[in-house]
Design a protein that fits this description.
alpha/beta; five-stranded parallel beta sheet; binds ligand SAJ
């Protein structure tokens, strides 16, 4: 980390920002820049996204985002377009997926750079926010330099470069994006000192957390490391679940009690790791350093195998002599959201569709119909209570808040496969095994809430 010399900051203030990619990260970023008085131009290749935003509407589900977008579009701070326009700063927030064989695909980043190249001018700042393999910021800059030989770029042109370039990853949690955008600390990796200083100026417009300056490559690896760390820790919980199953022990109890140790904080096992970040980003590190990533590779394998383990557990309780109805509750990749991308719950249902002699029902309160990849497989889509009512076997795949409120009476006489420990542990009536110590007694007497080990887990 290097210190910021504030005298390095460019004299002209940043007034206009263009955000390239108005998805889960880009759109909220547009909204917060605009709400702090910057003139924002949101760019997206999808005309229907652009039209929606220009009407003040949103195309993603994120708490409080709709009201904010409506406001900043109405007051003229944000407008959207399919074609890049000149601006003082450009923030690139496009997807960086992986290919079938787990290789990073940075083609969207390079396409975004290509699209802004014609409108770049001396003094502009370009920030890459997309989660990217190490070296992507330099590769993107090399492309810009090739496309605009009339402008100079860092690091080649050093502190005298016409255009400033930095990497600053987003690290917000879906469902809490607006709060985390503002409050989280940020890493900023400029390709020159002036690039970092200019990016600090840009993010200081809305970030209340601390800003840390480092190199672009370190900032790229920091982001990947955060998600790989979580993947490895979830894999540990999932491996422990398998160990407990072998030993006929309750993994939820084992974790809760182990987490009473002051330096232990085990995460929660489940049917696998989903979403477009944690299940993807470790591969960017594995691809870059295949001989040094045995732990990360194993973690990926453990987490990717989980849906198969859940299906094996279901098959183990099936009665081979008759057709049975299996109800799967939850399809999203984590609780209380509508996002089914890379969802392990969807994977479980897809695998179950191939198991003979079962009638399959799925319920997901946050979406209106079965996701496309589950269509045409004879799966019935209904609400949770009707699904339970018709089922012999109930499989809980996502611990949505409303599933925790289901009356245990409705589940009586059903075979339960609770992959999240919601009904069988967290909401279960358990004998009180805790003998309250002096410290807890005093805290209770002072009206402090009772601490539970699981409070720290999620
Ligand atoms: N999961 C478990 N057990 C747990 C915690 C999570 O099985 O104890 C599963 C979830 O069910 C889900 C998956 O892991 O399928 C990922 O969920 P998540 O809540 O851990 O993370 P994401 O993908 O929603 O967001 C992550 C965040 N990264 C970290 O927490 C390190 C977020 O801060 C990043 O900004 C985001 O990835 C991203 O965009 O990269």
């Amino acid at each position: 980390m290097s210190e910021l010399n504030t005298t390095e900051i460019n004299a002209t203030a940043i007034k206009t920002v263009s955000v390239i990619g108005m998805g889960y990260i880009g759109l909220p970023t547009c909204a917060v820049f605009a709400s702090r008085g910057l003139q924002v131009i949101g760019i997206d290749v999808n005309p229907s996204v652009v039209e929606k935003v220009n009407r003040g509407e949103v195309h993603i589900v994120e708490p409080d985002l709709d009201g904010l977008i409506q406001k900043v579009v109405a007051n003229g701070q944000l407008r959207a377009s399919t074609t890049p326009q000149p601006a003082d700063a450009f923030v690139i927030a496009v997807p960086t997926p992986i290919t079938e064989d787990h290789k990073p695909d940075i083609s969207y980043v390079l396409a975004a750079a290509q699209s802004i190249a014609p409108v770049l001018k001396a003094g502009d700042l370009v920030v890459l926010e997309s989660t990217s393999p190490v070296g992507t910021t330099r590769r993107m800059t090399a492309l810009l330099a090739e496309l605009r030989p009339d402008l100079s770029f860092p690091p080649a042109a050093g502190e005298d470069a016409d255009v400033l370039v930095a990497y600053s990853p987003e690290r917000v949690l879906p469902g809490k994006v607006l709060t985390e955008l503002t409050n989280n600390d940020r890493s900023i990796g400029g390709l020159s000192k002036r690039s970092s200083a200019r990016a600090v100026e840009l993010y200081s417009s809305f970030v209340a957390g601390d800003l840390f300056i480092t190199s672009a490559e370190s900032a790229e690896l920091v982001k990947l490391t955060e998600n790989a760390f979580r993947d490895v820790n979830i894999a540990f919980a999932n491996e422990l679940a398998a160990v407990c199953q072998d030993l006929s022990l309750n993994v939820w109890e084992v974790i809760e009690l182990a987490n009473r140790h002051p330096r232990v904080n085990i995460l929660q096992p489940g049917p696998g790791v989903g979403g477009h970040c944690i299940a993807v980003d470790p591969y960017f590190i594995i691809d870059a350093a295949p001989n040094s990533t045995r732990l990360m590779s194993s973690a990926r394998r453990i987490n990717s195998d989980r849906p198969f383990a859940v299906v094996r557990d279901i098959e183990a309780v099936l009665d081979p002599t008759r057709q049975q109805t299996v109800a799967c509750l939850g399809l999203s990749f984590k609780p209380n959201i509508d996002d089914v991308r890379e969802s392990p719950a969807v994977e479980v249902v897809k695998l179950l569709a191939d198991v003979p002699n079962i009638k399959l029902i799925a319920a997901e309160p946050h979406i209106g119909a079965l996701p496309g990849e589950l269509e045409g497989k004879g799966i019935i889509f209904t609400d949770a209570l009707s699904a339970i009512d018709r089922a012999d076997i109930v499989v809980l795949l996502v611990d949505h808040r409303q599933f925790g409120l289901i009356d245990p009476e409705a589940l009586k006489d059903k075979e339960l496969i609770d992959t999240r420990g919601l009904w069988t542990w967290r909401k279960a009536k358990k004998p009180d095994a805790r003998i309250e110590g002096k410290k807890a007694r005093e805290e209770r007497q002072r009206g402090l809430p009772l601490r539970r080990a699981t409070d720290r887990a999620a």
